[in-house]
Amino acid sequence: MTTSQELLREEVARRIVTARPELAARFDLLTADGLLAAKREITRAAQDARVLAVCVLRDFDLPAWVRATCAFAARIDRSAATDWRRDFTRTVFLAGNPDNLKDRFAFGHVADDGSAAWQGPAPADESTALRRLLKLFNGSAQLPARPSAVVPVLTGHDPRGRAPVRRELHVATAGVAIADCLVHLNHLLIEAVLDGIVGPGDELVVRQAPWLLASAGPFAALRIDGTPDRPDRLRAYTALTEDIHDA
Question: Which partner for 96 in 24, 27, 134, 213 could form a disulfide, CB atoms 3.0-4.6 Å apart?
Answer without folding.
Answer: 134
